[in-house]
């Protein structure tokens, strides 16, 4: 879509969007990471800015993407850094979209010098849980640290398994996280990661569920912003 043909329906709104994967260091040369490319978050940031929003993009590791025009980019590496940056910029924001792939765990210890191969068998890597940034935002909104009007959007990548399908897991995740919208990507079989197309569902806290037919990440971004916009309070 041509930027000059887009609605300016987010003018005057401040959005915080996280994107990419976090990297959890093990020693100075190694980290635990994930396959997130950052493409979906960057597409959201670019489009939100084109629709008039003032956008802060909190970017973890991304696959050589150009910074979107007219977007304030804050670079982070770890989940803890991402959590700090998101919490800081969320204050006064109209909406926060957590499209980043935040590592659930980090190595429990950071070795300040390179871990050597040595002669014997390797040690296992002990892990510890990272804070859930999205759940923390919802908590902050509940306890008044963030405005009650702040719209909070989560993402979920689900494969489904013997215990439940993608939608079953996604509904449970929306309820558990307490966010307003959950963008659900069906993953596995080469879907969603490192590719230009996604498909899945858009679940809202009011129980509405919209299928997202296969489309580009730019199209996904426009559907997400279209669903978010009516949740924003009337402009002040
Ligand atoms: N998320 C977050 N902080 C974390 C982990 C996840 O903010 N430490 C956010 C992601 O950015 C995403 C949403 O939570 O918006 C869902 O992430 P997901 O990994 O699907 O959910 P988890 O609760 O970590 O559940 P699991 O990985 O076990 O499916
Ligand atoms: Ca996770």
Automatic annotation (TrEMBL):
Natural source organism: Rhodococcus artemisiae
Chain's role: Catalyzes two sequential steps in the biosynthesis of coenzyme A. In the first step cysteine is conjugated to 4'-phosphopantothenate to form 4-phosphopantothenoylcysteine. In the second step the latter compound is decarboxylated to form 4'-phosphopantotheine.
Pathway the protein takes part in: Cofactor biosynthesis; coenzyme A biosynthesis; CoA from (R)-pantothenate: step 3/5; Cofactor biosynthesis; coenzyme A biosynthesis; CoA from (R)-pantothenate: step 2/5
Protein name per its UniProtKB record: Coenzyme A biosynthesis bifunctional protein CoaBC
Reaction catalyzed: N-[(R)-4-phosphopantothenoyl]-L-cysteine + H(+) = (R)-4'-phosphopantetheine + CO2; (R)-4'-phosphopantothenate + L-cysteine + CTP = N-[(R)-4-phosphopantothenoyl]-L-cysteine + CMP + diphosphate + H(+)
Region (Phosphopantothenate--cysteine ligase): 15-236
GO molecular function, a single term: phosphopantothenoylcysteine decarboxylase activity
Portion of the parent chain present: 188 to 423 of 423
Binding site for CTP: 104, 114, 155, 173, 177
Domain DNA/pantothenate metabolism flavoprotein C-terminal per the UniProt entry, residue ranges: 10-228
Similarity remark: In the C-terminal section; belongs to the PPC synthetase family.
Keywords, in A-Z order: Decarboxylase, Flavoprotein, FMN, Ligase, Lyase, Magnesium, Metal-binding, Multifunctional enzyme
Magnesium as UniProt keyword: yes
Cofactor note: Binds 1 FMN per subunit.
């Amino acid at each position: 879509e041509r930027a000059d043909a887009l609605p300016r329906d987010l003018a005057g709104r401040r959005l915080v969007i996280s994107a990419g994967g976090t990297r959890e260091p093990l020693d100075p040369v190694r980290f635990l990471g994930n396959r997130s490319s950052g493409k979906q978050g960057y597409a959201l940031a670019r489009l939100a800015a084109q629709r008039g929003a003032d956008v802060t993009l909190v970017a973890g590791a991304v696959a050589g993407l150009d910074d979107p025009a007219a977007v304030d980019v804050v670079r982070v590496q770890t989940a803890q850094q991402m959590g700090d940056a998101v919490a800081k910029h969320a204050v006064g924001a109209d909406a926060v979209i957590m499209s980043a792939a935040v590592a659930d765990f980090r190595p429990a210890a950071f070795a300040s010098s390179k871990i050597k191969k040595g002669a014997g068998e390797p040690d296992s890597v002990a892990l510890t849980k990272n804070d859930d940034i999205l759940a923390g935002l919802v908590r902050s909104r509940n306890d008044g640290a963030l405005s009650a009007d702040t719209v909070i959007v989560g993402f979920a990548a689900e494969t489904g398994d013997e215990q439940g399908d993608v939608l079953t897991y996604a509904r449970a995740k929306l309820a558990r996280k307490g966010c307003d919208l959950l963008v659900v990507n069906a993953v596995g079989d080469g879907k969603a990661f490192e590719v230009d197309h996604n498909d899945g569902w858009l679940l809202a806290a009011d129980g509405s569920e919209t299928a997202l037919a296969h489309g580009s990440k730019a199209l996904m971004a426009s559907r997400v912003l279209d669903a978010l916009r009516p949740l924003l309070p009337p402009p002040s």
